[in-house]
């Protein structure tokens, strides 16, 4: 067997410029210094990159390819000591590998699972998802925790999180319909959306959702009129833009001024929106809502957002004599997709947020409002992995005598768009056997007609990976199935849950018949 040239004496790191953004590529020379390689092998890695939204570019596909040809593995990705080993924080609690190297979850091995349900498939560890929901509910005791359904929703997941004490945040009539079918208490459901249709607002009011988060003056008028027409009082929160530039990808940062969500605090629209809701006869204004973005690791952004929303809250109290009873700080808590990610625990997040809020309310002389948060990916993300079967393996020679393995699997950008959309990074492991081969720098790609159809941009996989092997991608529970498409008329994969050795289908596999049935022309 000829192993890729990329292993053995191959430069794996760079002393070049620090990596400053997830969409960025490396530039500059790569030292042919084997000490760099050996230090990385001992598990040392570059310090966590400091990134900033302005540094994050949506890299052009051709640009990425050119840059990769000179950059090889990114500095944050160490060559593994054992290419078969799992890094526990990337996986749900019930995941392990058996003596043959086969991935197992809650007592079920993925080789049997793949035979039973096929691939690709998303595999949810039910106990893990429930435990993450419970951990938020316990750490934030006294607050309301809404599970952000957009990260992944099925009726079973809605029931699980509800049973663990959480409310649910939905942002379309479709998500609300799932919550309704799940039979959850709709008073503990919040309806979001920057452009809710009249039908969606009507659906929300008829269902009796506990709160509707308004996002524009058009919507305030529309909702006020509808509530009057239906003679139903609507409990509303005003979504504000705090001007915080969350340190995350531009497309998942939502509190800077130049984007579509919310009313600007700095521009004065937020204060006007609060007043408009307060004045509307059929609206009950309950508070302010702020969501600064997603995949955020540092608490500073939440701190600034909390300070600015509480100031608005205090100013509103001063000018109207009304202290609004509630405040929502949104979601966005980061998770580990790769070894470079070190997320905070719900306990430490709760402690940091409580300290910030208490200090700020005391300083402003207002009572602490009833608080809520909306974590999505931190609950559903790490609880599931995606399982694929390898179809083809290509060794692509790069300049300088190195190479990269292109490992093509039976899914792709239609079941996980995040890599293409946000330059998100993932990890992968050979899931169907133990390998004695050395690690090779690989890129996991899909089966779609797109050069940007990349699932895992950089990972070390065993050099003997071959067609027929199973590959598992951790942290695939959030925004993979929920953002899946039918690009190239590929049916969407199923979602199965595993618990105590039992496999249960939550969402069945789409079929070609399903897709053809839509074509009625
Ligand atoms: C208003 C709101 N709340 C909560 C979330 C959940 O974010 P995450 O899944 O990153 O926790 C989002 C994500 O887009 C959001 O827009």
Bound molecule kinds, no repeats: pyridoxal-5'-phosphate
For the sheet with most strands, the description reads:
9 strands, mixed
The proportion of residues in beta strands is: 15-25%
Helix residue percentage: 25-40%
Radius of gyration: 24 Å
Question: For the terminal residues, how far apart are their CA atoms?
Answer: 52 Å
The count of β-strands is 21
**Uncertain spans, ≥5 residues at pLDDT below 50?**
1-70
Number of helices in the DSSP assignment: 14
In short:
With 521 residues, the protein is an alpha/beta fold.
Give an account of the 3D structure.
The protein is an alpha/beta fold and about 525 residues long. It is about 30% helix and about 20% strand. It contains 14 helices and 21 strands. Strands 4, 14, 15, 16, 17, 18, 19, 20 and 21 form a nine-stranded mixed sheet that branches. Strand 20 (about 495-500) and strand 21 form a beta hairpin. Helix 4 (about 125-140) packs parallel to helix 11 (about 345-365) and helix 10 packs parallel to helix 11. It is globular, with a radius of gyration of 24 Å. Residues about 1-70 have low confidence and may be disordered. The site of pyridoxal-5'-phosphate has 17 residues, from helix 12. Pyridoxal-5'-phosphate binds near residues 192 and 294.
Labels describing this entry:
disordered N terminus; 14 helices; alpha/beta; binds pyridoxal-5'-phosphate; nine-stranded mixed beta sheet; eight-stranded parallel barrel; 521 residues
